[in-house]
Amino acid sequence: MGPICEGEESVRRVKQQLRALGIGLGLLIFMTGTVAAQSDQSQSEAHVVSVGGAITEIVYALGAADRLVAVDSTSLYPSAARELPDVGYMRQLSAEPILALAPTLVLAAADAGPETALDQLRTAGVEVIRVPDHVTPDGVVEKVRTVAAALDVGERGADLAKRLERQFQQLEQSLQKVTKSPRVLLLLAVGRGTPMAAGSGTAADGIIALAHGRNAIEGVSGYKPLSREAVVAAQPDVFLTTKRTIAQFGGREQLLARPELAATEAGRAERLVVMDGLLLLGFGPRTPEAAARLAEALHGGLEMPALTGVSDDESRR
Fold first, then answer.
1. Where is the Fe/B12 periplasmic-binding domain (predicted)?
2. Residues 201, 233: one domain?
3. What percent of the chain has pLDDT over 90?
4. What span, in angstroms and rounded, lies between the C-alpha atoms of 234 and 237?
5. CA 314, CA 316: separation in Å to the nearest integer?
6. Is 187 inside a domain boundary?
7. pLDDT value at residue 192
8. At what angle do helices 115-123 and 25-33 cross, to 10 degrees?
């Protein structure tokens, strides 16, 4: 074998070793060429990638949007976020496109991944902070405080947390007069197949509880495909869904015409509440507003508080 062939063989072996380690050539170059420069930056100068729609909303609410270099595909609000580079779906991340943006900090939702991609970012010297995601008022506040601490804007985070705590208190006080909790069945599209229903431990379960509704799906955790028998057994008073789900099923009428929904009292009465998905399920800064809107829809005639400081112009689109 000549010198050229030997050189090609060496390159081939190196590439094989890198693949075995799960490290691409671009990642190797990044690791050897730029980590030292990045490590000298302070958090106030951080180049941030936000992975998770609610996290991105929090960054904007904290006045730190100028530090963002990219977001994920679930970051749809505010509209300015959609103008940033998109690193893809939060559960299907790849390290190399993120590293190409030279971030110093990745704020990742609790269920972002895969973990191998996040490990590669850490190996390359990028700080990765997991942001907890508990679908409760305390969970929203914790999320805000975590992001604020990561961005070194703790005072702004404390102000936002206090505002949200006050809004959740106002919401709960307004709902104390509610005496009946309607059974709510959330429908979520995954492709064009059978809708998924939300059980316990889901964001849907959390927002329904905040609005003083009752999740119609009992004894099931997570999101599960919905059978006709399960819908009938749930006896929902109201269906709840997202604008995206309505669009995927071809419209409100088409969704309600599905046999498993039409067979229920809620289906026959066409009681269907439709909301923006990120607003409804994000558990971010607009969650008090989302719960108030849902409560108005579930408890007709109920007067809800004006939640000051919440901008809702875009969420109504």
1. 47-302
2. yes
3. 71
4. 9
5. 5
6. yes
7. 65
8. 30
Rounded CA separation 107/127 (Å) = 9
Sequence-ordered strand ranges (E) for 22-167: 48-51, 68-71, 105-109, 127-131
Q: pLDDT for 217-239, tens place per residue?
A: 988 899 998 888 888 899 999 99
* Cβ neighbours for 31, distance < 8 A, ≥ 6 positions apart: 123, 124, 125
- Residue type present at position 253: E
CB 180 within 8 A of CB 214: no
Q: How much is the pTM?
A: 0.84
49 within a domain of the structure (yes/no):
yes
pLDDT at 309 over 90: no
Number of domains in the chain: 2
Paired tokens of 221:
């955790």
Q: Which of 176, 227, 226, 179 is nearest to 204 (CA)?
A: 226
The position carrying tokens 């490590």 is 39
Tell me, what CATH number does 52's domain have?
3.40.50.1980
Where in the sequence is the domain holding 243, given as residue range(s)? 180-316
Residue with tokens 């930056």: 41
pLDDT for the residue numbered 44 = 52
Tens digit of pLDDT for each residue in 235-277? 999 999 999 999 999 999 999 999 989 999 999 999 999 999 9
